[in-house]
Design a protein that fits this description.
Elements: H1 12-22, H2 39-49, H3 56-63, H4 69-77, E1 82-86, H5 95-109, E2 120-127, E3 136-140, E4 157-165, E5 168-169, E6 173-175, H6 196-204, H7 222-233, H8 243-256, H9 259-267, H10 269-278
Protein name: Tc1-like transposase DDE domain-containing protein
Domain Tc1-like transposase DDE: 189-246
InterPro entries: RNaseH_sf, Tc1-like_DDE_dom, Transposase_5
Length: 298
């Protein structure tokens, strides 16, 4: 009898990735065509992809491999510890932010009826060439998630302001000119929207306002409305040639939001506060709501 061949020393993940890259082949090393990627190239590609800095096309160029981009994509898909995911663009929370969120959630969890008389408002920017924050990367499950923050820029976009309550939606306002502190109305606690003039106007009109914790999109259900609208405005990767086309699509998306969906979001408010308390002020999974869901996270 011949001597048994020693077992390979590479990791299980690498072995699976190499096998997937070769395709269905015999265990005999001499059988079948030669693999497009050598074992060394597979290790290089997987190691670089795990940093989250490269797409498949970048990896092909970086290592000058003969494999196609599609082959590299299939290779990475078969690596257990890699997943292609969306990068988080949420601003980080400091200890002070978490403390304020906890105090706010504890205060309002005791008065669930307040949401029946609350108007949730916010602003949203839509770009001609697609939504912001849709940056994807290969995430190594053994490492912390990556994030990025994109600064706002002028031109090629439409800024809107809207609100909703249990009675329905407001009219959607298009902010056509550059806004300054004299005119911007925004109830969430963002520094660019803090305006003495606005506060004075609301006091004169006897409009009650709610103190809102900073950096808390997961607590505001209108963020889910914007997400639902964006999925319709940019369906199938659509882009727009001019502002008029984009505005028409935005209004159509706003009109498509049904009252039933808004009521579902309002019903989620108590769960949102409980989630904040459970997470000790950290961001919760409620920011992941999708339009049209009857059940699940809101």
């Amino acid at each position: 009898m011949g001597r048994e061949r020693p077992s390979p020393t590479r990791s299980t993940a690498s072995r699976r990735a190499i096998k997937a890259g070769r395709g269905p082949q015999s265990d005999d090393r001499k059988a079948g065509r030669r693999p497009v990627l050598s074992d060394r190239e597979v290790r290089q590609v997987v190691r670089a992809a795990a940093t989250g800095d490269y797409f498949a096309a970048d990896l092909k160029t970086k290592f000058s491999v003969t494999a196609s981009v599609r082959t590299i994509q299939r290779l990475l898909k078969n690596v257990d510890h890699l997943v292609y995911t969306k990068m988080d663009r949420t601003l980080p929370l400091t200890a002070a932010h978490k403390s304020a969120r906890m105090a706010w959630a504890q205060e309002h969890i005791l008065n669930p009826g307040i949401w029946e008389s609350t108007n949730f408002s916010d602003e949203k920017k839509f770009n001609l060439d697609g939504p912001e924050g849709y940056k994807f990367y290969s995430h190594d499950l053994r490492q912390p998630t990556q994030s990025y923050v994109r600064r706002q820029n002028g031109g090629g976009s439409v800024m809107v302001c809207g609100a909703f309550s249990d009675k329905g939606k407001s009219k959607l306002a298009i902010l056509r000119d550059r806004q300054n502190s004299d005119y911007v109305f925004q109830q969430v606690n963002a520094s660019i929207h803090a305006s003495r003039e606005t506060k004075h106007f609301l006091q004169e009109m006897q409009v009650s306002t709610m103190v809102w914790p900073a950096r808390s999109p997961d607590c505001n259900p209108i963020e889910n409305v914007w997400s639902a609208m964006a999925s319709r405005v940019y369906a199938h990767g659509r882009q727009y040639d001019n502002v008029d086309q984009l505005e028409a699509a935005i209004f159509a998306a706003w009109d498509s939001i049904e009252q039933e969906y808004l009521l579902q979001l309002l019903e989620s408010n108590s769960r949102r506060r409980l989630a904040v308390i459970k997470e000790k002020g950290a961001l919760t999974s409620h920011k992941k709501v999708r339009f049209g869901r009857k059940r699940g996270w809101f």
